[in-house]
Amino acid sequence: MTKQSDSPGFGGVPLPKLGPNEDFSLEAARKRLGETFEPIPTPELPPADPDLDRAVAELRRLREATAALAHSEVELGDIADRLAEVADLLEPRVPSPSKRLETMWTGAGTRRSNPVAGPENPLAPPVQFYGCDDGSVRAEVTLGPVYQGPPGCVHGGVSALIIDHMMGFANHWGGRFGMTAHYEIDYRSPTPLLEPLSLRAWVQEGEGRKTWTHATIHAGERLCVEARGLFLEASVPVPGQPGTESMLGDGG
Ligand SMILES: CCCCCCCCCC(=O)SCCNC(=O)CCNC(=O)[C@H](O)C(C)(C)COP(=O)(O)OP(=O)(O)OC[C@H]1O[C@@H](n2cnc3c(N)ncnc32)[C@H](O)[C@@H]1OP(=O)(O)O
């Protein structure tokens, strides 16, 4: 994740005041946690193989195209055979899902493979988040028909997925950690597909193990979704690394 000052196009809505106990700006997080604190150290995490991101980008093109197959004039029998050929080529050569869970937690961790921002994950749009000096994280993304819920609009569960992830990211940027314990979402107006959406999340307050984080999705100046979450500092065992626990600091 790169550090970026406010950029135009984020709706211009001021962030609410931070909680009474702490300042969650990047500078304050650095002071609190010391020089070793390096949230999201690598803006461009290198792929394990230079062709990996290209391969997944092609899969995303396929994802969009296959979502449009119905009512097209494509000869589908032939397409299905050709896709099966590629799948047959890949399946026996890639690690098993349980092995993959282990390798995800080495090197760049899950930052490259999570379902929101991970360049390696064909499910991810992907969303590229930036950490800002005011302690918020932001992104802009345009979502296509594969993410549709109501006609022409983003599925509410997809918004929730993105929001959960970006609140976790905001926690990390603010020097906080934790699992999502509870969050609530207000869908204020329809979230359009095929239009740029401005995403924003920030830590509102923190006390002991608890962090309260807020997030919004805007289409231009229009508020589409707002959310508030409670995160609790906790750790979970890391697959394939007995005795190792993660506090979700490596998931952005
Ligand atoms: C760069 C980083 C980017 C990272 C992005 C990744 C984001 C991904 C975010 C996720 O998807 S996390 C996955 C979804 N979440 C989970 O799977 C969590 C599952 N739940 C748990 O593991 C436990 O419930 C949890 C660790 C959250 C809490 O269990 P604890 O046993 O530690 O809590 P405990 O019962 O001791 O409660 C501690 C306090 O929190 C309060 N609390 C717990 N759960 C609550 C809840 N659900 N709502 C409100 N308050 C809650 C509880 O009342 C209490 O308050 P007090 O201390 O004031 O008494």
Automatic annotation (TrEMBL):
EC number(s) on file: 3.1.2.2
Cellular location(s): Cell projection, Ruffle membrane; Cytoplasm; Membrane
One MF annotation (Gene Ontology) recorded for this entry: hydrolase activity
GO cellular component: cytoplasm; membrane
Gene Ontology terms describing biological process: fatty acid metabolic process
Top-rank lineage group of the source organism: Bacteria
Official protein name in the record: Acyl-coenzyme A thioesterase THEM4
